[in-house]
UniProtKB/TrEMBL annotation:
It comes from the Eukaryota. Keywords: Transferase. It comes from Gallus gallus. This is Sulfotransferase. Belongs to the sulfotransferase 1 family. Residues 34-84, 94-247 form the Sulfotransferase domain. Pfam families: Sulfotransfer_1. Its EC number is 2.8.2.-.
Length: 261
């Protein structure tokens, strides 16, 4: 039913996970100079990235346990807010997570239909149309990409992709650590890579995410889209992607031609 979602500033949100009051309050959310913001559209691997960053932060021992707790809470709230006004002088660094749009769409489809707090779609085709027009919780992935593309040259922003983290998690984490100013040893990086592997996180998911564990840690692979996309849908998304962000640095980072063709 429609009342599972509410609309705020033209974007849909699940009523069970957010509220107009929270979103309103976030407009005046005061960041501190050492805050870290993880920005990602749903299903781009946000839980994974969060876990990696948390491990990197706590291994470096730059923060006390108290400071760590505070930081993690703030990260969680901000994740809910897709369009945080960038340029707030308090915001220290923003890490933007990207995933190829076809796998993101498929991952979100399963999530949508399995999460009781979100409405269900009768068919993939129906869902696909909603994804393309952005009529889903947390809005359009294409709008999200276009919006963030405006800040691509910002010195306090870094991009990382799901696919590059899959391909070489240690290298990805090294880039993240360097950007945030953390220094870890080779052994520490490989320990974190093991601890945050899909298998390891899935096994622990009952503990960390309760009954939603199996929904959140579904497959964890690149290329799931091939199971569901029709030829016409492929073309439609190729075209939309080209129209919206074709030729941008952000599009290059997503490597659409490698992962979506
Ligand atoms: P799939 O549905 O394709 O499996 P989010 O955390 O933003 O909701 O993203 C969820 C997606 O990230 C799911 O994709 C999930 O399986 C995947 N994921 C979660 N943890 C992962 C990990 N440690 N390694 C790789 N993928 C992971």
């Amino acid at each position: 039913p429609e009342d599972l979602l509410f609309s705020y500033d033209g974007i849909l949100y699940p009523a069970a996970l957010s509220s107009p009051e929270t979103l309103e309050a976030l407009k005046s959310f005061e960041t501190r100079s050492n805050d870290v913001i993880l920005a990602g559209y749903p299903k781009t691997g946000t839980n994974w990235l969060e876990e990696m960053v948390r491990e990197i932060e706590s291994t470096d021992a730059k923060y006390t346990e108290e400071e760590m707790k505070e930081r993690i809470n703030a990260e969680k709230e901000l994740q809910m807010f897709p369009r945080l006004e960038f340029g707030d002088p308090g915001v220290f660094e923003i890490l933007l997570l990207l995933r190829n749009p076809k796998d993101t769409a498929v991952s979100y489809y399963h999530f949508y239909n399995n999460m009781p707090v979100l409405p269900s779609f009768a068919t993939w085709d129906e869902y696909f149309a909603a994804f393309m027009s952005g009529k889903l919780a947390w809005g359009s992935y294409f709008d999200h990409l276009m919006e963030w593309n405006r800040y691509i040259d910002h010195e306090r922003m870094m991009m990382i992709s799901y696919e590059e983290l899959k391909e070489n998690p240690v290298l990805g984490m090294k880039k993240i650590a360097a950007f945030f100013g953390f220094s870890l040893s080779e052994e520490e990086f490989s320990r974190i890579a093991k601890k945050t592997s899909f298998q390891a996180m899935k096994e622990k998911s009952k503990e960390t995410h309760g009954k939603f564990g199996d929904i959140l840690f579904r497959k964890g692979v690149v290329g799931s889209w091939r199971d569901l996309f029709s030829e016409a849908q492929n073309e439609e998304m190729d075209q939309k992607f080209e129209e919206c962000i074709g030729g941008t640095i952000l599009a290059m980072k997503i490597k659409y031609d490698v992962y979506c063709k």
